[in-house]
Amino acid sequence: SHYRLFPKSLGQVLSKFSVRELHISFTQGFWRTMQWGQPFIPSPPGAELWVWFHDTVSDVDGNWKELTNVLSGIFCASLNFIDLTNTVQPSASFKPLGLGNATDHRFLRYATLPREIVCTENLTPWKKLLPCGSKAGLAVLLKSEKLFHSSFHSQAVHIRPVCQDERCTSKAWELRQTLNVVFDLYTSGQGKKEWSLFKMFSRTLTEACPLASSSKVYVDITDNPEGELFELSPATPLLSQAVVLGDRRTYSVFDLSRAETFGQLRSLNLLLRWKGDSGDMLRPLLHAERYVAGFGLQTGEIHTVIYNNHPYRAFPVLLMDSVPWYLQLYIHTLTVTSKSRDNKPSYIQYQPAKDRHRPHLLEMLIQLPPHSMTEVTVQFERALLKWTEYTPDPNHGFYVGSSVVSALVPSMVAMSTNFTQDQPLFSSFVPVKEESSYFVRVYTEPLLVNLPTPDFSMPYNVICLTCTVVAVGYGSFYNLLTRTFQVDEPSPPLSKRLANLIRRMRGVPLLA
Amino acid sequence: MAALQLEKQRGRSAALAIAAVVIVLGIPLWWKTTETYRAWLPFSEISELDSLQLQLSVDIEVVFSRGTLTPEQQKRFPHSHVNEKEHQVDAKTGLRYKYETRYRTATIMEEDALNQPTAAEADLSLHMLSESSCGSVVVYVIPGSSTLLPEDVKVYVGQRRTALLRSPPFKSSWNLKEVLSNLEMDVEQVVSTMSFAHQDIVAALSDRVRMTKVTKESMTDSMRAIKSSPGYEITFSLLNPDPKSHSLHWDIEGAVQSYIQPLLNKLAPIANFSVDSQILYYAVLGVNPRFDNSVSAYTLSADSLSHVINPVEARLGSNAASSNPVLNFLLYVPDAHHSPLFIRDHGKREVPSNAFHSPRWGGIMVYNVNEMYGPETERPVDININMSKVMGVFLAQLRLMLGVQHTHPPTGFVLQSPGSAGLSDWELDRLLWSRSVENIATASTTITSLAQLLDQIGNIVINDNIAQQVSSAVTSLQSAVAELEAGNLAFALQYSREAILASERAFFDPSLLHLLYFPDDQKFAIYIPLFLPMCVPIVLSLLKIVSEAKKRRADKQAKSD
């Protein structure tokens, strides 16, 4: 097959394993929804991979295993640790985002590796997938020494089938590479409240990738219509309005494909200087967090707390939890409470774990009352692992992947369902089906659970101890069996022997 | 006293009984529970394969057309003759070539075919008459005065498996034997051109045999060709280091369809091929070309070519989805500031094709586009690449890589170019011969070294599936050798491919890595707390019993004395 802009390595993988849709993300750090607002492309800490296979695939698990091995080679990540024990098939939470309406979740595989550490070796292959690499266009900014000096880093690759034209006569692959980075320049920049491209990336933009049909930088200036909050230089006459995550936002647009963007210096260094205190971040309407409660090493309780911050609208959310088999969930202890009242989920799908074969999968559709906090708790017991199943640092604890909350959140403003309109790319990822709501996915924190750890020198100690016990027992037994018994004259009592000793010294005849 | 004797006797028999239980029950139990599973392997057959005697049989047909022989000489036709040659390549490898030559006169239809005006047409119509089998050679002897061949041409080798040979002057007084011996030298040359030559076969055996007396030429030929493998990935990459100035378009799909695919179809019995292409932007060569004022062009000297590939290769990307060897063909369009770019050979002359190849890796061609647009054209310039020019070069390089050797024909030989198929039948036969021998050599070395390894390291678990792979490799190898001996070239290749697949699968099976490896010192550390306290009393009491028995015998002897 022949490739032009699409990377050959990924194309070959897609066709060999009959992949219909592929989403992979690598994230370092945790997105703080309450401080930073809703993420544009949400992703859990560590690595996440979910794949829809074509329904012609007969051995989905075999394809999945090989695919993860190949992807771990392409992205230099430990995706090869994905096996059946951490793979689930969610029935409702992960729907295909591209063309076609596949609903048979037998062809879906989902796995997370919360422990995966993301670094330069993952960024380099990711950049290599771009047609211009890091030689031209926006990607020249992506230097790892600056990108990983940040509070949050998330890179992702999304591949899905899309329409090639408006009338959808033919299909095409869409490869979407996203990178979310959160810089905290206030703490790292000696308290100065300003940022610029050069400060963040130690580089400036000089050109667009010549192969790009559109190459733009958006700066959100919604809260700053008159320039009273901050000052943005260079000024740009281009403004763009878009409805993003249920809110109408205004952006300053810097179009790299136009020569005037770069000015006389032939380089674009965006500079933003805050004038006063920054405005308050809008509270996200949906927010979730999770923690482990309980004491001791035998039992515990997982608490998942979901907040609906909408003042007057209730809406349903899908909660998906995938828990490894070594936490044995007691599903009868599952309780869902909102406003201190029992909140019965309208849909529960629970697949119990099989030891060493598959994890627990719990999916629930929960109605969140307006302006409320809903708490989901479930108790678990920690299993004892075999001694070879422990990680090299067992006292660090074992990770449990984030739970996923997916919801259609009621929108404050009408969402645009018109795809043809020129929108920023980051707002068009999940297709909007209706005007009144928008899709949000929220990931909770991953959990770190301590399992009872044995003393690992124990096997040798046990061998030594048993051997000694066996040897002692055997020795006396052997002795008893082979010893020769014979009747012996009892020796004279001590007083008689002493008397005889004295008599011998005196030369008197001895006692009998 | 008698009671004491009895008691002693009881102690002795108890000690003996315990020792017996330990030896009869304990040791076999311990042995059984700690042994590793090792399936049976056909070691004796493998050691037979270690010393390989290959026989290659070729069917040769020599057809005399009208006017070459006198009726007297034709009397004993058809006539056949077997010629065998033996070569001992090294202590463990022997080669025997068996040439089975049949002599006959041409049929009327063949005579008609030979009366065509040109040699190529004669070749085609002879092919229409009868299809000769894979690996065989047909030589038509035509009269010395024939106009089919130009004056100075002695032998014409066609696109199929036939050759036309201008007969040397025979005296009409010679008997048939003299005629044939006169002809023998020429026929031998034809056969070594069309089926195999000794040095090619020896080069194909390079996996088994340390090469010493091989000519340098066939050595480079065999080094250049990529190793035999069940499949190959062919990747065409267009390198565009300057997408700002050049917007390149290549119709690779059509070009592959019309230039490469016919060759690959022809080669289908040898291996599976898959063809891919990609365009890489901002991919640069690793060397900065030097500007040469005399020709006002940039030049790459032959010495610097070796540094070109590595930086480019990082961008090419390996095929994640298969493990077959990759053949890369790169089309490099130099950027606007470094064009035109020419490659120069060791003699400082420009290479006419402006391309070079790297053995077992692929080829690179430089394609200059600076003449296609003026200096004030708006950038980027749309450029359509002339694929026939490019594919001609790549096709030649692909033939080299695949081991379709550039045979250096003896003087007086004319080889018909393979035409649109890219490969003539006899070239394919040559390839089949050397590939079969190479596969057999590789598979037999793999299997023997695997057997040796398993024999040496007793801790490796041998599962049933490995044993099965090994035996199927051995049977396929034996069949391949037998088919070569019988002259069935196509079957021999097929069996040898099966053998190589099975042997590699057995050799690289991951279950062989699960070596149950416990170092001896650790083993003893675990066993000593149990074994030492158990064995010491047994050994001591056994020693005591033996010494008592000796003493008693000595006492008895003394008493009888």
UniProtKB/TrEMBL annotation, chain A:
Cellular component, GO annotation: GPI-anchor transamidase complex
GO biological process, one term: attachment of GPI anchor to protein
Gene behind the chain: LOC113082134
Entry protein name: GPI transamidase component PIG-T-like
PANTHER family named among the record's database cross-references: GPI TRANSAMIDASE COMPONENT PIG-T, GPI TRANSAMIDASE COMPONENT PIG-T-RELATED
InterPro entries: PIG-T
TrEMBL record, chain B:
InterPro entries reported for this sequence: PtdIno-glycan_biosynth_class_S
Transmembrane regions listed in the UniProt entry: 12-31, 524-543
Bilayer topology term: Multi-pass membrane protein
Matches recorded under Pfam families: PIG-S
Domain of life per record: Eukaryota
Keywords annotated in UniProt: Endoplasmic reticulum, Glycoprotein, GPI-anchor biosynthesis, Membrane, Transmembrane, Transmembrane helix
Gene Ontology CC: GPI-anchor transamidase complex
Main location: endoplasmic reticulum
Annotated GO biological process: attachment of GPI anchor to protein; GPI anchor biosynthetic process
Cell compartments where the protein resides: Endoplasmic reticulum membrane
The protein's annotated pathway: Glycolipid biosynthesis; glycosylphosphatidylinositol-anchor biosynthesis
Similarity-based family: Belongs to the PIGS family.
Protein name: GPI transamidase component PIG-S
Species of provenance: Carassius auratus (Goldfish)
Gene name of the record: pigs
